[in-house]
UniProtKB/TrEMBL annotation:
Organism: Morus notabilis
Portion held of the full protein: 379 to 642 of 642
Membrane spanning stretches: none
Record's subunit section: Heterooctamer of 4 alpha and 4 beta chains.
Compartments where found: Cytoplasm
Protein name: ATP citrate synthase
Source taxon at top rank: Eukaryota
Length: 264
């Protein structure tokens, strides 16, 4: 029989060899004619399946809520400085994206990992938070520079309200809220942040949709798909900040001398 020469690349998410491009087997004409949105396309290209409408709507809400958070946070600051140094769109965008990581925007996967592990093991919020403290690890998804117990992040509340109305189960969300109640009893800045809300709600989405096996959920959490939501969303805002600086013809940024402590 025929022997297939081994290929150098394997791809399972898209194919453009036919009459029309396909995402996970769905032809572009269906995608356009049936009004697929960004959430549907993420479902196809990241999760390789069509997810129910409430799931794709949730993904779109995450993207809308995380698109921008003003000029003062790490990512936008880097993008603004780079755009003002006369660099192009891609350079300005990636300089902002490079700040996304464990402290800023990139704690979604770790919050899903740690909260899942703790909740599945039935650890009490006290046991979970204190075991993290003993290991010297900050609880991913907890803490925010500007939000406090009495002034919580509206985005978190909106995500949770949507999930309560549309998700079949919000077990992980409720666990995260219990952990937040415990951490807030320790310090007023230890709120559940937007990364923690998305990480734990995505666990509920994956488990409750009935579209993923337990093994697939473990793989998604293990590989770390979820920071991708923040990267994708925040690119929208970072591109906006680049255009804003160019439009305003802003000059090269120079940090004020008086704002530096020259210490020995
Ligand atoms: N778990 C446990 N303790 C914490 C946490 C946490 N997640 N966050 C802060 N603390 C404690 C610190 O240990 C510190 O106490 P200490 O000075 O006695 O050590 C105190 O709270 C204040 O910490 P700061 O560093 O001043 O807090 P800051 O407001 O600068 O940090 C940050 C904010 C970086 C988000 C922090 O809370 C953190 O590392 N959280 C975990 C990572 C995370 O979730 N990042 C995503 C944020 S959301 C987003 O970027 C879109
Ligand atoms: C954001 O969405 O950029 C913020 O939540 C980050 C922050 O540090 O406030």
């Amino acid at each position: 029989g025929k022997v297939r020469a081994p290929t150098h690349i394997v791809c399972t998410i898209s194919d453009v060899r036919g009459e029309e491009p396909c995402y996970a087997g769905v032809p572009m004409s269906s995608i356009v004619e049936q009004g697929y949105g960004v959430g549907d396309v993420i479902s196809l290209l990241w999760f390789k399946r069509s997810l129910p409408r409430y799931c794709t709507h949730f993904i779109e809400i995450c993207i809308v809520l995380c698109a921008d958070h003003g000029p003062c946070i790490s990512g936008a600051h880097n993008t603004i400085v780079t755009a003002r140094a006369g660099k192009d769109l891609v350079s300005s965008l990636v300089s902002g994206l490079l700040t996304i990581g464990p402290r800023f925007g990139g704690a979604i996967d770790d919050s899903a990992r740690y909260f899942k592990d703790a909740c599945d093991k039935n650890l009490t919020p006290y046991e979970f938070a204190e075991s993290m403290k003993k290991k010297g690890i900050r609880v991913p998804g907890i803490g925010n520079r500007t939000k406090k117990g009495g002034n919580k992040d509206k985005r978190v509340e909106l995500l949770q309200r949507f999930a309560r109305t549309h998700f079949p189960s919000v077990k992980y969300m409720e666990y995260a809220m219990q952990v937040e109640a415990y951490t807030l009893s320790k310090a007023n800045n230890l709120v559940l942040n937007v990364d923690g809300a998305i990480g734990t709600l995505f666990l509920d989405l994956l488990a409750g949709s009935g579209m993923f096996t337990k093994q697939e959920i473990d793989e998604i959490v293990e590989i770390g798909y979820l920071n991708g939501l923040f990267v994708l969303a925040r690119s929208i805002g970072l591109i906006g900040h680049t255009f804003d600086q160019k439009r305003l013809k802003q000059l090269l940024y120079h940090h004020p001398w008086e704002d530096v402590l020259y210490a020995k």
